[in-house]
Amino acid sequence: MVIVNHHEYQQALTRTIGAMGTAAFVRQLAALVATQVSSDCTLVLNYRSGGPAVYLFDNLQHRRDLLFQQYLNGIYADDPFYRALGLGLSEGVYSLRTLVAELGMGPDYMAGFYQATGWQEELGLVVSLHKGQWLTLFLGRMAALPFSANEQTRLRHLLPVLGALCRQHWPLGCEVMALSPPDPAPPEQNRMRSQVDMALASFGLARLTRREQQVAVLLIQGRDNETIAQQLGIGVGTVKNHRKHLYGKLHIDSQAALFARFLNHLITCNQSREPKAGS
């Protein structure tokens, strides 16, 4: 591997390994990539077959609202990377412009939403995860300065390291729920994720067994029976039995009803933590 600054790379790699299994992992992964190629913007997402784009990390300084208000709410489906992955794009390093040309896409995406972001050049790193999931790390430049062949080669040499780290960190793929955006995200966004985590931890505790509660939380996060069985180390049939029992105890009959019940729990949990008037 050709390394720009060996000392910085070693330090970044050590920090990334040390962050495995923690919420800081993706941020350290982005810092590791930054030791090889400079960029103005970094965005890390999780794509999954037939599913939504899940936010993992960004350091955007310009038009960040587009990411949270438009892209993650549906525009991602028009992203050339998302489309190409659905068509079988393999793990690798790709230029957005090259990908658009290979897909034969029209100019609408580039001239519309993408132009509003201010990005002039974009490079995407695609890492294969568990069963139809991919980590996609995007590097953007605000000036029309293409990523050189040498820069792209350095990233391709780094890709096996990134893949090994990511698959060790997410052996069963990423969670369906987005990570909390880092600063400069408003404190309310980080507080919201904390409230959701607390609501998940307390959901159904009064009625469900420990294992039923674990299954319920994973169902709320969109996991299927097979994935739940793998994560909990039990059989698929056992998962189905737990699912049947927890539905009965909660007086519901579907995963949609389970999610609705959780939303009610989340709302009441938040209300119970609000300070009373005059306190």
Automatic annotation (TrEMBL):
Superkingdom as given in the UniProt entry: Bacteria
Annotated transmembrane regions: none
Domain HTH luxR-type: 201-266
SMART domains the record matches: HTH_LUXR
Sections of the chain in a coiled coil: none
InterPro entries in alphabetical order: Sig_transdc_resp-reg_C-effctor, Tscrpt_reg_LuxR_C, WH-like_DNA-bd_sf
CDD domains the record matches: LuxR_C_like
Keywords: DNA-binding, Transcription, Transcription regulation
Signal peptide: none
Protein's recorded name: Helix-turn-helix transcriptional regulator
Organism of derivation: Oceanisphaera marina
